[in-house]
TrEMBL record:
<dbReference type="InterPro" id="IPR023088">
    <property type="entry name" value="PDEase"/>
</dbReference>
<dbReference type="InterPro" id="IPR001054">
    <property type="entry name" value="A/G_cyclase"/>
</dbReference>
<dbReference type="GO" id="GO:0035556">
    <property type="term" value="P:intracellular signal transduction"/>
</dbReference>
<dbReference type="InterPro" id="IPR023174">
    <property type="entry name" value="PDEase_CS"/>
</dbReference>
<feature type="binding site">
    <location>
        <position position="312"/>
    </location>
    <ligand>
        <name>AMP</name>
    </ligand>
</feature>
<keyword id="KW-0472">Membrane</keyword>
<dbReference type="InterPro" id="IPR029787">
    <property type="entry name" value="Nucleotide_cyclase"/>
</dbReference>
<feature type="binding site">
    <location>
        <position position="118"/>
    </location>
    <ligand>
        <name>Zn(2+) 1</name>
    </ligand>
</feature>
<keyword id="KW-0378">Hydrolase</keyword>
<protein>
    <recommendedName>
        <fullName>Phosphodiesterase</fullName>
        <ecNumber>3.1.4.-</ecNumber>
    </recommendedName>
</protein>
<feature type="region of interest" description="Disordered">
    <location>
        <begin position="1"/>
        <end position="32"/>
    </location>
</feature>
<feature type="active site" description="Proton donor">
    <location>
        <position position="114"/>
    </location>
</feature>
<feature type="region of interest" description="Disordered">
    <location>
        <begin position="525"/>
        <end position="544"/>
    </location>
</feature>
<dbReference type="InterPro" id="IPR003607">
    <property type="entry name" value="HD/PDEase_dom"/>
</dbReference>
<dbReference type="GO" id="GO:0009190">
    <property type="term" value="P:cyclic nucleotide biosynthetic process"/>
</dbReference>
<feature type="domain" description="Guanylate cyclase">
    <location>
        <begin position="902"/>
        <end position="1099"/>
    </location>
</feature>
<feature type="binding site">
    <location>
        <begin position="114"/>
        <end position="118"/>
    </location>
    <ligand>
        <name>AMP</name>
    </ligand>
</feature>
Amino acid sequence: MDSSTCSTSAMLSPRQTKHRRSTPRASPTRGASVENDLLSTDFATANDFTNWNFNVFELETPKMQLAFVQRLSAFFELHTTFGLSMEAIGQFYVDVQQGYMERTTQPVVARRYHTFLHAVDVMQSVAVFLRGFQGTAYVSPLTASALLIASLCHDVGHVGLTNQFLVNSGHPLTLEYRSPVLESMHTARTMVLVKQHGFLTHLPTQESLRVAKTIARCIMYTDVSIHSELLRKTRAIAWRPGQLAEEDSYVYCGFLLHTADICNPAKEWSLAQHWTDLIMSEFFEQGALEKREGLVVSTFRNADQINTSEIQANFVRLMLQPTLSLMAEFLPNSAFLKDIAEGNRKQWEADSLRALTAPQVELIRALSRPLVLHHLTRREQYLEKLTRFCDNDKVIAGLFVASLYATFSDNVRIASSGVEGDVAFGICTCVVLAVMLADVILSAIVMPRYRYSFYFWLDLVAAVTLLTEVSFINGLQVDATAHAGSGSLTKTPALRLARLLRMLRMATLFKLFKQALVKHSYRPRRQSRATKAPAAVGSADSPPATFSAADLKRICSSPVYTLEHVEQLVRGAYRGVPPPTDALRNFCARIASSTSLAPMRSFKFTPVRFHKVLMAMEDAYERDMNSTNKISQLNFYASRLGEKVADTTLRHVIFLLLAVLIILTECTMPRDVSPRAYGLQKLHMWAQTGNAGLLREVAFYTNATQPVYLYLAGANATAVHNAFAPLAADPWPLADVVFDGHALYGPRVTACYRVEYLTALYFPSACEWPSTTLPCQSIAVFDGGAEARTEAVWEIVRTLFIISCFASGGMLLTLDVYKRVILPVERMVNLTQQLALNPTKSVVAEDEEKPMYEMKLLQNTLTKVARLLQIGYGSAGSAIISRNMMGADFDPIIAGKKVHAVFGFCDIRRFTDITECLQEQVMMFTNTIGHLVHHAAYTFDGHANKNVGDAFLLVWKIPEDSPDVAVINQARPPAHLATTSGAELDYLFFDKEGNDKMAQSKMYVATVADNALMAVLKTMVDIDISPKLKAYKTNKQLQARFESPFQVKMGYGLHVGWAIDGAHRWWKGTDACVGAIGSKYKIDASYLSSDVNMASTLESTTKLYHIPLIMSHSFYNLLSPMLQQFCRCIDCVLFDGSSKPTALYTCDYVNPNVRHFRGIADVPLLQMGLLNGFTSTFEKGVNEYLVGNWAVARDTLSFLLATLKPHDGPAEALMEFMGRSDFAAPADWPGYRKLA
């Protein structure tokens, strides 16, 4: 059959088959004993032949399928009925199976549905009808056997393509078989096999003839285009007990086979779903082939533009349910099939609500492809992966934490812990050091601009200087032999260096803050419609995300998204076709890449999180795919501009900050005299002179300076210690400082105190010791740990204050740069991008609260240029604008594109004479009419294409997936010359648009042709009532040349067909054009084809019939019934140079009192003034003229001219033509006349 029915459920996987019994794998051969080989397979039982929901997919191998057919044949005793042996009929089944497998014609497509398994399924369904539902009650066993043979062979040799495709593509089968091509081929091949294997040899002549006719008629009835006719004939059968009449039995058997052929949606859900996947995959194979060959994609074959679940639900409702209801009338046991089909229909309707849109399908399929880096070497791929790792938010957050630790670690260590915690802090510092060095190395690898830059040296120095804070590396935490040194707690060069190093690390922290701020401010922004404010939807700020939160909830409402939901999403994108093997793994790999996770086998996301992941994946994919798209890169370049400005600004701020910090910390006035050193000097002098007040001075010195250790050369050490110890806050024992040629800290000191904060003062600074254990110097040791902790706390506070000031200042600077520079640039980029992606869309500059004059001027200029381009090129030139704005080079000459459209051609009558009269005013006159013509076209969804002096070409494009395209491609002849009815088109209308079209007689829905006709009628009315054109009635030159008052007269022609859209370059030897009208200096964007010329020809023909409007019958066929009733056929002609006749139609406009035209509701007003009976009388006269009864036509039209409409132009033209032959039609009158 030419299967134009379909069933799909794109969201679930095909059912996994199960083995009920094992069978040998070997395939049968011609020489094998079929009886011994096939019947030995204990597979099928009698219940399988009467079980409606038998799972035929369990027959996994060709041998298992053949064995099932042999069992079914034996169950119905077909070999006995036809007088054949089991081996002979088995060999017939082998040849039938081979006929399904062979591929002898081109092109070859993957057949997944029209296979031998489908034939077995149909045969099993027919067996259920006959035996399970008692269908044999109406036919003889011989007829039932013939029906079973027809059911097995009904698609033998199927090529996986439709009849319409074979005709459109000029397939060789169309030269060999009559229409319908496939059914004729199936019938011919089946009859060859039947005769070859002796099915008719042992039957009487009458019975063999009846068997042959039953098989042939049944197969021909599988043509879906005659579905309605078959149902009508079945209803007309005279049902009575016993056998039916011969013709009725053919119809009955054909109905059963046709029902079995289309009843997959009435199987249990898993089976219906599986068959759906198979047929849709075959449909989409044909659609892909049609795209490759430049043909219009047939209905249901474009996988990117249909909702297959909705189509299937409508198919069950419109086609299958009436069929099953009719079968239930004479086979009552089949009534439950309607319930199964209804349940499946409801399931498909639910699935249709969850179906993905075309952009969502495209995105999911793209994300399911391998995650590879296009056009990159292996080294570049590794660099790209490292770049993604370095740009990951979590990695940046980790580096921020590390820099934060590096900035505050030393102060925190001093303020919060004692010397015992230094080792732990040292280990953490080593880890942070490794992290920061790794960051420097990776950044230098992946970012050449970073290498040896200011930030490179800043990061490297800041990282290396962390070594100065590791106590077990820098030597500050010493052992028991550590020397006591001298110096100031806050003024030593080492500590000043440490402070400067902390400033460098603070600058590194600022750099990371800058990176995060810039990335957040300037990375490409996407926002779903669901999260935008209502006023922002459709704005030019940013394109909406393909998936909104509402979309995810509609597709799969779940509190948690798991791998199962992702699999459902991927399968939904392939609309029933099994996804590629690695599609799910590739999609999960992209999820892992977007979330910086390792490839996962399972995961759980909240709906909000999963929505963000999808948006991130889409952003990454678009950046990858648009790398050669200059317009798409403009947003990226604008963002890079903002990043560069922010980077430069923040770098200057860092320099300024470092300078200020250095000045504030280093430019302090040191004290001239140190109380500690001066007091120690006095104590030393008193000790040397043996002054009796020494101990009292020691007490004063201790109270004033609080040393932890005091030794006075020349004085009793024990007496001095006893004098200062009670007054000191933390006196050291004498043993904590030992003398061995030098003053050394003892083990207790190095274990309990940070040596770097111990200050040892000597007086005199140099002298010769009497012995290694007796110093000649007085020594005082001070512990600065408390002051250091206080200073560390204040240092943390100061650093936090500096960071907060920098953060707020940096943010304000960055936002100001964004607001003043980047945002206006991005708005202009968005305008350019809108124009490039959709050149016919009206672009408007976005208003700003406080616009900058220069930016506003640029935006307005860009908007005006865009508008001029749109007006200059029109809809036909949209591809030129888009390609040149999105590409790198300028090339106005591009290849055209075949489109289907309604073409309207209108012309100003007597324009030459009007030009001579109006002279320089003729431009205003022409533009006034042009404005009215264009305004009417745009009001009714059309486009103005060309203005050629006094003529205008108008276009109404027809979507390529519209059923109207199929009607156009059929190229049906005029109604009186047609040999077939329009029933063959019924099967085209099972989608939502088709359903609406079928219901137009009850509820009006404007078609493209309706809009074109109403635009012409509106133009007529507007020209008649235009005040500007009425002013020309009093023009003296026009009154002198023409009638008074002067009337503007126009001619209109409407036709439908195909054309080449765009700028085209002519090639010799072609009747259509591929390339440019003009050159790089001047081009015209227009539509070229014979159908465009036909519209012009129809307009010029209006002069012959003295009417303003003529339409072709091809255009008339696309009108809705509500508008067709206001049109009349006026003639049928064969234009010079045309191979097919064209019927001419017009729509009368006779009421001059109409003041405005708004749509179809005003059409009856235009014809107020036509007398009752005019339309029917004229129709009768034309019909008699077309069939050759010219005498009757003369009398009818004469009566019309005399009584109903005296000066009817078409009637007068027909009378004049028939009068040339004395109102006698030629003997070879074909039903039309030739018109030069």
